[in-house]
Amino acid sequence: MITEAMGIERSKRRFAAARLERTARGLLEASTLCGIATVGTGNRAHINTAYFAWSPDFELVWSSDPGARHSRNIAASGTVAIAVFDSGQTWGKPDRGIQLFGSARQANGPVASEAETLYAKRFSAYEPGSLGAYRFYRFRPRTLKLFDERDLGPGTFVTARRAAGGRLVWERTEIYRSAA
Q: What's the predicted TM-score (pTM) here?
């Protein structure tokens, strides 16, 4: 292992695409809420919480008002990072979560219809067309950072790139160690 600063070790341990995809799906299914980080004017960070649905190729969709700050930021730059985790986890027990980095846009036409169908499938109480001025947004990740201590190992973060067809390709494994 190559040791990096602050107790982070770069590991040569690779993970197969099937395992990465199974883990990512489990992490996305673990919560219906996500944190959506955007960048606004003057490089000011903004975060918003939203209910989301996801597709088999790891695209995420949510509904939001186009006038909301995060929606305006998306319209201006499209740069987005998303975090999904179960907020009921207990400190000191095995943890899990996923971070996704990529771009988003307001969905229009057939893409909006697909987003709404995906959303309605996840949220049975949702009634299509019931959100008034809200619009659907689609996020396309370039990279995903997976953290599932039961599945990947204690303190293990695995970064994967999203390839054609939504396949995940291992990029790196990092192991976070507490200072002794």
A: 0.91
